[in-house]
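so my prof wants the structure for this chain in the tokens format not the other one, which i didnt know existed until like an hour ago. anyway here's the sequence
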Amino acid sequence: MSEHAGKSVPAIRNALAILEFLRVRGNEPATLSEIARATSINVSTCFNLLKTLETGRVIAGEPSTKTYRLGLYLAELGSLVDRLGQRLKIAVEEAQRISETTGLGCFLMTRDEQERFVVRDRVESRQPIRVTIDIGAVFPPTGAVAVKAWFAWAAPAQVSGLLERHPLPGRTPNSVVDPDEFGRELRLTRQRGYATSRGEYYPDHNAVAAAVFGPEGHPALLLVVVGTTSQLTGREMARVGDEVAAAAERATKRIGGHHPRRRDAGQRVGG
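here's what i got, hopefully its the right format
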């Protein structure tokens, strides 16, 4: 925080100070004057911040005692973070099994609010020459193997909407750019249980991916294996794909998820 203090926003810095003060005191209710004094914030400014945070349920005010404490919205956010953390922990265990079996690295991806795919965690390959992706790396909404694995069981309207917002780009000569071909790739993904990319994102790299589903039957995250075209080709890609699909199935069950019935999905998506 101190390293970037010159770039921080004063109002946000003060709001964080208020939250930290209430956290340290175990969320015991505190008055405006107590909070302002402890955080060295002007009383008027502190009051405005508290009322703004109260509007967003980040802070809960008690009119009868004129005190404030941390609000329930923080608990809701914490629950979401914890749920993702637990899912990632389970998925990482399955990714380790994939890596041990295939000798390749396995990456865990989710989608962000901009519909991009983000690498949340990874298990590195032990091979001297390996493909690696940084945690936090971001890939576009139509990112080859990821988009196929994520949308294979989606409703037709969802797929159409995605392609309207994010047309299929031709990143390499092997990229799928035709919507009809993309639909065939989704059907093939459902049949096999995993998606493939043969030089579609980087010409010298192939990939396989399978979705881990949450309780509602929607993708919660992806298990993705990437290798060079010499590492992932022909039978080897099929073998790795089966391993990834099996691991995704196990992870789905372990997080209490539900895999969409492929028969129903086949009727819903792409005919």
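also thought this was worth mentioning. The longest helix spans residues 72-102.
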